[in-house]
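Input/output pair, single chain:
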Amino acid sequence: MRTIQDRHVVVGADFAGFRLKESVKRHLQARGWTVTDVTPTQDDLPMYHRVGFLVGSQISERAFEKALIFCGSGMGIHIAASKCPHVHAAVAESVATARRAATANNANVLAIGAFFTAPRLAQAMADAFLEHSLGDGYEDWDGFHDYHRLGYDECENFDYATYKANGFSVVDPQEVQLGPEPSGLAF
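Output:
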């Protein structure tokens, strides 16, 4: 698997996100990242959902640890990528939400909407997402990592048929106590 520790990431975009993807790709490459682009030219770009499937499959197949995807809003491509197994995609419109997608939700795909995000902001969002992992920055919040890890694990292992058969309840739910929020915590 190509990992974040080794500074590898996969990217893709539809027609609406292509120019923003190119800006973020150049930024990452200048910072030493190896960027694999599944949509390297503007000719014959797949529709947003097909790009989502294509990039999502790179995560599902364990070829890459994290990915960045771009379309007009970030929403459609995010939905499509999320259909692939083991993809935990997030849409972000700020540096704080991009970081939080990594630190609290353990997302492995970040979707960015080119209609709403300027290039410099998207570059900072990519940095925040790629340079953080589950629990980073919350070391003083008792139970934070375990609480969010449980949420991630239950999502990763979710089986709708079993959930439905159990009366729309999680089977054998685990509990984790989240301690009080530390004073002065800035998200």
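The chain has a mean pLDDT of 96. The two ends are 30 Å apart (CA to CA).
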